[in-house]
Amino acid sequence: MSSEEPLFTTPDPSEPPRVPSTSGNAGGVSSPLTSSGIRRSFEVGERRLEVLHGVDMELRPGERLALMGTSGAGKTTLLNILGLLDRPTEGKVHVEGVDAWSLSPAKRAELRNRRIGFVFQFYHLLPELTALENAILPAMILFKGSEFRRRREEFEGKAHDMLVRFGLSTRLGHRPGQLSGGEQQRVAIARALLLDPPILIADEPTGNLDRGTGEKVLEILLDEQKERDVSLLLVTHDERLAKRCERVLFMEDGLIQADSSAPMPT
User: Fold this and answer.
1) Residue pLDDT tens, the chain, 266 long
2) Burial of 224 (0-12, 13-18, 19+ CB in 10 A)
3) Are 54 and 255 in contact (CB under 8 A)?
4) CB-based contacts of 262: which residues, under 8 Å, 6+ apart?
5) Residue 55 forms beta bridges with which residues?
6) Where is this region: Disordered (predicted)?
7) Measuring CA to CA, how many Å separate 42 from each of 22, 50, 172, 263?
8) Strand, helix or coil for residue 190
9) Cα–Cα distance between 131 and 209 in angstroms, integer?
10) Domain spans of the chain, in order of start
11) CA–CA dist 211, 79 (Å, integer)
12) Smallest Cα–Cα separation from 191: which of 213, 164, 159, 229?
């Protein structure tokens, strides 16, 4: 792909970017997210701290993949790189066949916004926006000016339907400070899904919630993942959450040390 060739050919977020064909999977279906040889180091004073030591991983189409490991194993660093929030020192990340870190910053940001949804432990909602406005934020960022104004009603309707389905029909006009933790996380899930991304990255999505609230939020997240056939990468310390996934990766000392299958619950 030349540097002048546009990555995206349509402003419609329901359509994926054009990507080179790959043959890594049966039937020619490209894995939504892969990494190869990911290394990450940081300069700490006069010494170099190596956090990731050449991580290879694959998120398969439509699967639930859990990533576990002790604190300091490198999970968050890897997640930031896979989510195109941080650049690796070495290695490649492919999003639907696109070498993400070879793109310009603007194209990479567009790829991330269109194709990857994020759910964070601490929600990261904008305090000055209402629940509905927070949920449509990805569209506000992607479609600027007249294009967003033309389609605002469409995105507000989509976000409204999700928030109502998530039990927030009476909270649409409330700001984050007026919402409980569980309500804020539901808004965050709606925000992550607004543009129908094929990839969902969830970093300890119930880690800041009590057990009962966390289970309700988890059911919403997993129901949406299954209904939409989204590929979910779930970082967690909770074995109960990991058991809801089809595969579990275990990280230790900056490497994936084990890859085991966990049966899906009925």
Assistant:
1) 444 333 333 334 444 443 333 334 444 468 999 999 999 999 988 899 999 999 999 999 999 999 999 888 999 999 999 999 999 999 999 999 999 999 999 999 999 999 999 998 888 999 999 999 999 999 999 998 888 999 999 999 999 999 999 999 999 999 999 999 999 999 999 999 999 999 999 999 888 888 999 999 999 999 999 999 999 999 998 888 899 999 999 999 999 988 876 444 43
2) buried
3) yes
4) 66, 242, 243, 245, 246, 247, 248
5) 38
6) 1-37
7) 33, 7, 42, 37
8) helix
9) 18
10) 61-73+103-261
11) 24
12) 159
Contact 251, 73 (CB under 8 A): yes
Tokens of 227: 């209904």
The rounded distance, in Å, linking the Cα atoms of 209 and 204 is 10
Fold annotation for 61-73+103-261: Rossmann fold (3.40.50)
